[in-house]
UniProtKB/TrEMBL annotation:
InterPro entries on file: 4Fe4S_Fe-S-bd, 4Fe4S_Fe_S_CS, FAD-bd_oxidored_4_C, FAD-bd_PCMH, FAD-bd_PCMH-like_sf, FAD-bd_PCMH_sub1, FAD-bd_PCMH_sub2, FAD-linked_Oxase-like_C
Cofactor(s) annotated in UniProt: FAD
Lineage of the organism: Bacteria, Pseudomonadati, Pseudomonadota, Alphaproteobacteria, Hyphomicrobiales
Keyword annotations from UniProtKB, A to Z: FAD, Flavoprotein, Iron, Iron-sulfur, Metal-binding, Oxidoreductase
Gene Ontology molecular function: D-lactate dehydrogenase (cytochrome) activity; D-lactate dehydrogenase (NAD+) activity; FAD binding; iron-sulfur cluster binding; metal ion binding
SUPFAM superfamilies in UniProt: alpha-helical ferredoxin, FAD-binding/transporter-associated domain-like, FAD-linked oxidases, C-terminal domain
Top-level taxonomic group: Bacteria
Protein's recorded name: FAD-binding protein
Pfam families listed in its UniProt record: FAD-oxidase_C, FAD_binding_4, Fer4_17
Record domain 4Fe-4S ferredoxin-type: where: 611-643
């Protein structure tokens, strides 16, 4: 159907008609213009349905408006399956429910937006699992997996989604509700869309001979063709189940709103063996023999991935890398009887010895933890191979061809030769036990010659796959990247059958046009992402990116996001807490990175970087840095947020709240004199609402209480028996929690140190610049950071260690100072209090006369400590206290940092982040448990959200020193 832009009135009406959300602003459209592929296509708008009726309304209104409808899962597809110019349906925000679980019959029903990781967590206590286990399980969706006919790690034993689908409730293009399922020959029961299914069966009967000829039953070890499973229409086929039509259809035939799945029982035992080879060909040649042992998985890693594993220096990899192999095969068995697994491993060892004459003995992986660690190693290596810090990138176009096992070695050799002929690098890996090799040639699509090379490679790779009797996709789907290739891979009769089936269910091409049928050229420049971002827009940047304060460098950083959406998960808590709280693409690290990329490349209009829409995009970023440490590409969203705030400030768009926060260090001493008056804000009715209107600080968030007793350490002091240290009184602790500083001083003195104040001898108190930086006042932050760096260097010259309490401030000197254009000192100029003490424990130089505290303490580490790998120190130090039971809180974010959680528009999300893991952990420990948190904002969040005090570790150590203080949880 002809595509055109929808009118603003259409979107207003759609937003009113559905329960869910509908929007068509440029920034939202930009976030949905990409996935994990090389493509970019701005949709007309996005709808997030809450129910099947919402989907029906979208379909009806889109048809009337002349728009197509594209169903989208997690946006993790590598071939552009969920991109298009129509209305994108995002099921992940609301329609992610898990319905009835039939444990006895191993079945369940889910909504399409449910992630396989969420489903696995619910099924595991029942001893069940969905055995289609894909690398993107944390962020992909079951609906997307159905559309792709995903296969996954253990498909060799358990099959693909096509083998797991029992039925699906779906809407076809005209809005009719159809229950896709198997129909018995004599069945008379009525169900939704029965007439539509009977029409499909008549279609199958009319084309029975053609279908049998074009899609013959394939022998074991031969991959099934992608796209439409027309054998599901044959009356005599064991696979006659019309739900199978949806597996691989990529949302082009119908939109599933409820999916019934066939599950498997979790195996009682698993066994894992790693085969090493001197060359890739040797690994490929032995796979058919290994497959005869009936393993659950055979995964290949080539030299590229082995080098990535070796660079990580993981202890689990040591045995695997002995002998410097060129290829690895990870082979898994999961027989119910452990004796059978042992027998199969013996058979594997014998097969390997026969194949390579005993050069590399089999490496058995003993223990469930070690097996899990090995699979994680493989996963990490694969994700590292997805992206490079260069303009040339590994590209997914003809990426996952699969051939019969007996042709695999020849196919692999010819594929490697083909890449060599074109002078292109690529890793070769994947589920080789199914005849599938993943190949992602490294090309720079900003260059015409590389685009021409991609075209030649794609054509020759497709021909190679077909010549070896293979299929274009072994489980990643067809999408924009491979739909054109179907014309080469399938006979004209097969293509006509596909077109006729499409016309049967969607004659107007409303559903996801351009996929499978009537595809555009896969290398159409209008669809490519790279050429549009070849040059950065003339956008001034305030921060240093890759050693340069230029928009080009900032754009290069934003381009690192490959769109694989490892950040889009609610199951792994320490990834992106804002997305876990809202399930909104805007609030994911991917959504933010792509928005910044579009802004810096000029695709969102002038002044987009500092626009209100960009500030809204960044509003719920709590700057936890999980994106930088958890993302394999090191995307730094907090830095992008500051860049956006700085651009807004330069344009004169900054709030009173931002000004108050940026200048906190300047006025805090004066404010302390008015502490009693400021405390009235939370006591007098109406005053909190008044200050919210005037200052922009949430009325329901109590203000911090300024400390009455100031902290004053001497500027000069005599060294103790172990020397002299300087204590950094950061803005937060010297303003609101001076007791922490006094406790730290007491502990350090008891440890044998003289304690002096860390000050600038000319200007007095120092500030790291954190508040100004987080509010986008870069010049102020740089000036404050420069003063502190100069003072720290002076103390370092005197041999006096500087110690600080607040991770937000201390660790800024190891990271954000580079963004401010300042050198990062090595060793660090300031150590965290717990870090300093833990080092003394390590070298045997710490002795504290601590008395027992018979209590349990829930210990929460600051996010920045986790990001910098120093989060273990607090627990090590608190373990010095006799009888204190330490319960570490699950790695998670408290949800409060900077202005995130202090303003009315961020308060609810802030508390929702705390409810993901921290608050439940504290409640579970009971009212008598103590709470300790290293960060000021974490302690305030616990106090405000739960009404319970949270103490800095220094306070607990000081209490143990005193020995007579009553401690109340």
């Amino acid at each position: 159907m002809a595509l055109r832009k929808a009118s603003p009135a259409f979107w207003d009406r759609l937003a009113q008609e559905i329960e869910g959300d509908a929007t068509s602003d440029l920034f939202t459209r930009g976030r949905y213009a990409t996935d994990a592929s090389m493509y970019q296509s701005f949709p007309a708008g996005v709808a997030c349905p809450k129910s099947e009726s919402d989907v029906a309304i979208v379909l009806e209104m889109a048809r009337e408006e002349g728009l197509s409808v594209i169903a989208r899962g997690g946006g993790t597809s590598t071939a552009g399956q969920a991109l298009g110019e129509g209305v994108v349906l995002d099921f992940t925000k609301y329609m992610r429910g898990i319905g009835a679980i039939d444990v006895e019959n191993a079945r369940c029903v889910v909504e399409p937006g449910c992630t396989p990781a969420a489903l696995a967590a619910v099924l595991e206590p029942h001893g069940l699992f969905l055995p289609v286990e894909i690398a993107s399980a944390q962020s992909a969706t079951v609906g997307g997996m159905l559309g792709n006919n995903s296969s996954g790690l253990r498909a060799l034993r358990y099959g693909a989604m096509r083998d797991r689908i029992i039925s699906a409730m779906a809407l076809v293009a005209d809005g009719q509700r159809v229950h896709f399922r198997a129909i018995a020959e004599d069945e008379t029961a009525r169900f939704p869309g029965r007439d539509r299914l009977l029409d499909l069966l008549q279609f199958g009967e009319a084309h029975e001979k053609d279908i049998a000829r074009e899609f013959p039953l394939r022998p074991p070890g031969t991959p099934e063709p992608p796209a439409y499973d027309l054998r599901a229409l044959l009356s005599y086929s064991e696979d006659q189940n019309l739900a199978r039509l949806l597996a691989g259809s990529e949302g082009t035939l119908a939109i599933a709103t409820s999916i019934e799945l066939k599950l498997a029982r979790l195996p009682g035992t698993r066994a894992l063996g790693v085969c090493r080879f001197a060359d890739l060909g040797g690994a490929l040649r032995v796979i058919p023999k290994i497959a005869l042992l009936n393993p659950t998985a055979i995964e290949l890693l080539d030299r590229t991935l082995i080098d990535i594993v070796a660079a990580r220096r993981d202890p689990h990899a040591f045995r695997l890398l002995q002998g410097d192999p060129e290829a690895l095969l990870i082979v898994e068995f999961d027989e119910e009887n452990p004796v059978d697994n042992t027998r199969l491993l013996k058979g594997l060892s014998e097969t390997l010895a026969e194949a390579d004459k005993g050069r590399f003995p089999l490496v058995e992986i003993i223990g469930e933890n070690n097996r899990a660690a090995l699979w994680q190693l493989r996963h990490n290596a694969v994700t590292r191979a997805w992206r490079m810090k260069s303009a040339a990138q590994p590209l997914s176009f003809m990426e996952d061809g699969a051939v019969p096992l007996h042709r695999l070695a020849a196919y692999g050799a010819e594929l490697a030769a083909l890449l060599g002929k074109h002078g292109v690098r690529s890793a070769l890996y994947g589920s080789a036990g199914r005849g599938c090799l993943i190949v992602r040639p490294v090309l720079n699509l900003r260059h015409t010659n590389d685009r021409e090379r991609m075209r030649a490679l794609s054509d020759e790779m497709a021909a190679l796959i077909v010549r070896h009797g293979g299929v274009l996709s072994g489980g990643h789907g067809i999408g924009l990247a491979r739909s054109e290739g179907l014309e080469r891979a399938l006979a004209p009769g097969a293509l006509r059958l596909f077109a006729d089936l499409k016309a049967q269910l969607d004659p107007g091409f409303v559903l996801n046009p351009g996929k499978i049928i009537r595809a555009p050229d896969f290398d159409d420049a209008a669809l490519m992402r790279a050429p549009r971002e070849a040059k950065a827009a003339d956008v001034p940047v305030a921060l240093t990116w890759e050693a340069e304060a230029t928009p080009a460098r900032a754009l290069e950083h934003a381009r690192r996001c490959a769109g694989h959406a490892l950040c889009r998960t609610a199951e792994q808590r320490f990834v992106c807490p804002s997305f876990a709280a809202t399930h909104d693409e805007r609030d994911s690290a991917r959504g933010r990175a792509q928005t910044v990329r579009l802004a810096l490349s000029g695709q969102l209009g002038d002044e987009a970087l500092g626009s209100p829409a960009m500030i809204e995009t960044m509003a719920l970023c709590v700057s936890c840095k999980a994106c930088g440490s958890a993302c394999p590409f090191g995307i730094d969203i907090p830095k992008m947020k500051v860049e956006a705030l700085a651009a807004a400030r330069a344009a004169g768009r900054f709030s009173r709240a931002q000004e108050l926060y940026a200048n906190l260090a300047d006025y805090t001493d004066r404010a302390a004199r008015w502490r009693w008056f400021l405390a009235l804000r939370d006591l007098l009715p109406g005053l909190a609402r008044f200050t919210e209107r005037k200052l922009g600080l949430a009325a329901d968030r109590p203000w911090p209480r300024w400390a009455g007793r100031r902290f004053r350490a001497p500027v000069e002091a005599e060294p103790g028996p172990r020397g002299l240290v300087a204590l950094f009184a950061d803005t937060f602790n010297r303003s609101f929690e001076t007791a922490n500083l006094r406790a730290a001083q007491s502990v350090l003195e008891a440890a044998g140190y003289g304690v002096v104040a860390f000050t600038d001898r000319e200007d007095g108190a120092l500030c790291c610049g954190r508040c100004a930086y987080d509010a986008g006042d870069i010049e102020k932050a740089r000036a404050q950071a420069t003063r502190l760096s100069r003072a720290a260097a002076a103390y370092a010259e005197r041999g006096v260690p500087v110690i600080g309490l607040e991770p937000n401030c201390v660790l800024m000197m190891r990271d954000e100072y580079a963004a401010l254009g300042l050198p990062i000192a090595d060793p660090p100029p300031v150590l965290l209090f717990e870090e300093f003490l833990a080092r003394r424990i390590g070298d045997g130089g710490l002795s504290l006369p601590l008395t027992a505290i018979e209590a349990t303490v829930v210990l929460h580490s600051h996010c920045h400590e986790r990001a910098h790998g120093v989060d273990a120190h607090a627990e090590a130090v608190l373990r010095l206290i006799p009888d204190l039971t330490i319960t570490p809180a699950p790695p998670s974010c408290c949800g409060l940092n900077g202005l995130m959680g202090l303003t009315p528009d961020t308060l609810d999300a802030s508390l929702a982040m705390a409810e993901q893991a921290l608050f439940p952990a504290i409640r579970k420990a009971g009212r008598d448990a103590l709470v300790s948190a290293t960060g000021y904002s974490c302690r305030k969040q616990v106090q405000d959200g739960l009404g319970r005090p949270a103490r800095h570790p220094a306070m607990l150590l000081d209490l143990a020193l005193k020995g007579d203080a009553e401690i109340v949880g």
